Fold each of these.
Amino acid sequence: MRATTIHAPGDIRFEEVPDPRIEAPTDAIVKVVAGCICGSDLWPYRGHNDIDAGSTIGHECVGVVEEVGADVKDVRVGDFVVVPFCHSDNTCVHCRAGVQSACTGLGFTTSGQGEYARVTQADGSLVATDGMPHEKLIPSLLALTDVMATGWHAAVAAGVRPGGTAVVVGDGAVGLCGVLAASQMGAGRVIAMSRHESRQEIARAFGASDVVAERGEEGEAIIAELTQGVGADAVLECVGTDGAMKTAFAVARPGSTVGFVGVPHGVELPVRRMFQKNVGLAGGMAPVRRYLPDLLERVLSGAIDPGRVFDLTLPMAEAAEGYRAMDERRATKVLLQP
Amino acid sequence: MRATTIHAPGDIRFEEVPDPRIEAPTDAIVKVVAGCICGSDLWPYRGHNDIDAGSTIGHECVGVVEEVGADVKDVRVGDFVVVPFCHSDNTCVHCRAGVQSACTGLGFTTSGQGEYARVTQADGSLVATDGMPHEKLIPSLLALTDVMATGWHAAVAAGVRPGGTAVVVGDGAVGLCGVLAASQMGAGRVIAMSRHESRQEIARAFGASDVVAERGEEGEAIIAELTQGVGADAVLECVGTDGAMKTAFAVARPGSTVGFVGVPHGVELPVRRMFQKNVGLAGGMAPVRRYLPDLLERVLSGAIDPGRVFDLTLPMAEAAEGYRAMDERRATKVLLQP
């Protein structure tokens, strides 16, 4: 098949690779209908993560089941499925506790920007729709495989409550989905930190009541003012850098929790401040499968349209341009079609 | 008055200092009936914290109200009172949210190992008993001013639930009180990490079902075995060192929370592990006043006897020996009488 590969920082190709195949009886092969580029794909692209030269890249996709292993019972060939970026059996001790991202048989989508993807633990991972969804729903369904579930996880981890004030640090696709999640959970005020006009617009459409364009201490001071010096009831950290984390803790009120979902890079947690202010930290890699049935229902009912985060659609063959566009912030999130 | 002072690392004296006096109309002066030495007093004693040479030391005491400021309404001269180590008005936005340790008018007891102590925000801070308590209750009432409330806070922050497994890292007075708290909250299994026989005995009396004497990776491996490889449902970190924190995160199951109450010294939080395993951190300086009415009731009813953590009683004039005894681990916690 043809798939997107990474050879070195900045070196993205779309080329022939071996077809993925059933390796365990619990596997399924999905023919990709749509894949996309994640903000976290930019870490290796920018040289911040190690690269296995020539390996496929991409952990988000939706598609149609092409083949299943002998032990797969619930998913059938021909089903349209949402593929969580992390695969889980949904029956182990950690899955039963709602932490599917720590499944004892954890797997990951590794060729979501290719023509086919192998899904391990297919029965536990995949969620099928009733028949083929309308084409216009594809972007929102694709968003459920990672960014929407991840933003939702940030809001859950931060303890967003009806009527409370939530601050979202980060205006990437996950941050924007965090705004949508906090809004869906009934936060009385959702403050989005965003410098980019196009993203501010999506944030407002997703329910942000306030947008703060300033960063660092300047932005923190504005949020202090907006919250009468108290701080936010819940903070969603959706970036993963030290600066974002510092801002998250600076704007969190005593006794609150920072929900973090950005893969941490160079983060040093302010443990003394956490201690003095009783500000906790919760979150991590999102247990996508836990939220998927609920989020799917919200998409199908039209309650949420997280697909709005996609502002560029390209053929997979032009994946390299998609990476450039995201790297240069010309695009928030890029959808790739095979 | 005479009070315990610190002049340099290892240099503890009991000497004449100026009497504390009413400085604000919300202040009260308490004649100390019993004070004690806290594990955190050992930080400056050992030279790990800055010292203001000649300053009084000691933040835990119970006693009788000697004098009150003009605005004090609820506390009366002659009342026997439990003095939370941190003073709070109990009415500000943070107090109302249950984070009295972040009160906008936060104060601290500073001469709890002396004959008199000034208490700011007296109405919001002090909790009086009905009449003079029996002498045998004094140690347990004294424990409520810090260590018992702090251990309780660790258990609350860690989210101890009925039937769950709790691990307590640290067998100082706070750790032992954490065992008692987890047990009171109905944890099905309380695993105390303790190397010292006398402390193991108290831990068992406080409800520990298991005692693990091993530390570091060895101790972590034993707890992994005790929890069938799953990890603990809740972990109480009651030390404040990097090693204790590492162990706490190593034994916490995915999706659980480490409740931390040890003042952090040299702690580097394992943010990548926290992310990958979805293990959160919550806690900090205990909002003693929040828990005090409930804990006082438990002491008076005989449900808890946290005073058992005191294993050495000395006259205040021998405070220096008390510090030595705790520094050399000859005593778990030292009660000082004026």
Amino acid sequence: MHHYAAVPLDKSYLLLNHGPVTLVSSAAAGRQNVMAAAWAMPLDFSPPKVAVVIDAQTLTRELIEASGEFVLSIPVRAQAERVLAAGSQSGRDGDKFVLTGLSPLAASQVGAPLIAGCAACLECKVLPEAHNQQRYDLFIGEVVAAWADPAVFSQGRWHFDTDAARTLHYVAGGAFFATGEPVAVS
Amino acid sequence: MHHYAAVPLDKSYLLLNHGPVTLVSSAAAGRQNVMAAAWAMPLDFSPPKVAVVIDAQTLTRELIEASGEFVLSIPVRAQAERVLAAGSQSGRDGDKFVLTGLSPLAASQVGAPLIAGCAACLECKVLPEAHNQQRYDLFIGEVVAAWADPAVFSQGRWHFDTDAARTLHYVAGGAFFATGEPVAVS
């Protein structure tokens, strides 16, 4: 078992709405992998869908095309170094979980693993769209299960009580921003 | 003229990479409009492309489908109230620029306006994808010009020197996060 708590599917868009960097994990035929992806967003509320860009040259792409499944995880600041490693090394060069120090956990609805220590994880099944995949490297997935660390997300709300637990936004070249302070407009 | 400085097209993805909330502006047949969109992301580096979700019921959708053009602007914290207004009112109920207090500025390559006072603006031409537009409300655009406020973005880098100038990340229900502190991994 893991430390994540289930998030109702109709609230799962909230995990990705603020534009955090993601980890994309995948598994097929006894292999599993994880990469970083900044280009991910919600695409619908209910049933919840996501869109994510997966480069054609990656092992992740091969595993997702073979399995039709992936998990989007939302890493936290304490994992920034591992996220960068996941984005700069290839699963073709060795086991990415060994290379990055990220740990896989069994998911509930898909074969791709959750990633330990993240703020949240979204289990997704690919909605096949060959044109988008081939022309734009764009994958659309339906979210079939969602999880969050109750220390940072509960009752449909984010609450970042420590800097280490804040989610991340990727810029380039090893530079991220942490998710900053709340701004409320009434 | 406006206060924005041109951003090279091959650096324009940096304006959207960290997942900020956007304003989508549009114009057609003598009408113009602006709405808020949290579901926007880069889709390619060069030529730069973006993906954005535009609900079928919106006036923005009508104007973009008529013109084949839109502008994505990246608002700042000082504009949070106006962004929320742009996201909660419809251009069918009145001039959104009057309703929100946001100010349009002439763009260079498209008829849709830039928005004054933002961190950055991306002028986009729609790459027609009828299936995505109809099934997912998903629009893909090629970025044909990009602009940034040199006070917050220059030489390919963000530098938020004041809290009011930070970009925003939308959660829900009038709640945003400001873009937080830089996290560098070497």
